[in-house]
C-alpha cells in the first residue's frame, strides 16, 4: 500500500522484438519507453543511474534529469535508467 502522496514507480520498457534482448541488456539502437498508469503526471528520468531530481537547476554545467516526452534511444555504453512520477 502506498503512503499518502506517493505514486507507483513508472514502468521502463525496451521497445524491441529482438529475441537477443533481455530485460536488463538491450542494444543501443533499441527505443526505451517509460510509462505510468496514473493520469496527469510527469515522468522524470536519468540514464546515468542517479536518482531523478525534478527540481534540478542548471548549477554544475550539466543536467542529468530529463522530463520524459516520448520513447528514446540510449547512447552507447553502460546506461542505468531510473525514473520517477510527479503530480503536475
From TrEMBL:
It comes from the Eukaryota. Residues 1-22 are annotated as: Disordered. This is Uncharacterized protein. It comes from Rotaria magnacalcarata. The lineage of its organism: Eukaryota, Metazoa, Spiralia, Gnathifera, Rotifera.
Amino acid at each position: 500500500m502506498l503512503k499518502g502522496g506517493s505514486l507507483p514507480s513508472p514502468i521502463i520498457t525496451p521497445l524491441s522484438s529482438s529475441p537477443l534482448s533481455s530485460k536488463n541488456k538491450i542494444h543501443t539502437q533499441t527505443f526505451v519507453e517509460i510509462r505510468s498508469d496514473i493520469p496527469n503526471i510527469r515522468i522524470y528520468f536519468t540514464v546515468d543511474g542517479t536518482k531523478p531530481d525534478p527540481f534540478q537547476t542548471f548549477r554544475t554545467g550539466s543536467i542529468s534529469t530529463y522530463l520524459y516526452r516520448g520513447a528514446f534511444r540510449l547512447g552507447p555504453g553502460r546506461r542505468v535508467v531510473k525514473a520517477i512520477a510527479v503530480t503536475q
